[in-house]
Amino acid sequence: MGRFRMCLSGVGISHEALTQRLIQDPESDVHRILWQYDRVLPEKVVTFLRGEQRTYCNDIIASQLDADRFDYLLRDNFDDGGAGMGRTTWSGCCIR
Questions:
Q1: Considering Cα of 27, then 33, then 38, then 42, what sign does the dihedral take?
Q2: Distance between the two ends of the chain, CA-based, in angstroms?
């Protein structure tokens, strides 16, 4: 969803719910790609996104200090003419 997720404000569905719907919809390209890799991967991803099996990776996705907040802090700083705050790399997050 990226920068455009806020375009969904007020339409009655969150970008999180829409993402889960796309992953679970057998007609979507996202579902097909995940399913071709591993037939249970779409459900694993949705389970992960819902936080049903809590791991540190969930905190990277949704917490008080998550990847989205780092992203907009870095992006807003750059867009406002700041020198930037460095580069952030997230690694080690995987679904098992």
A1: negative
A2: 24
Which DSSP state fits 4?
G
Output the pTM of the full model: 0.59
CA distance 16 to 34: 18
How is residue 81 annotated by DSSP?
Answer: T
The domain limits of the chain are 13-53, 57-84
User: For residue 58, which amino acid is it?
Assistant: N
Q: Where are the alpha helices (DSSP H) in the chain?
A: 15-24, 29-37, 41-50, 56-61, 67-79
Burial class of 91 by CB neighbour count within 10 A (0 to 12, 13 to 18, 19+): exposed
pLDDT tens-digit profile of 17-75? 899 999 999 999 999 999 999 999 999 999 988 888 778 787 887 778 778 787 777 77
Compute CA 15 distance to the chain's CA centroid, rounded to the nearest angstrom.
Answer: 9
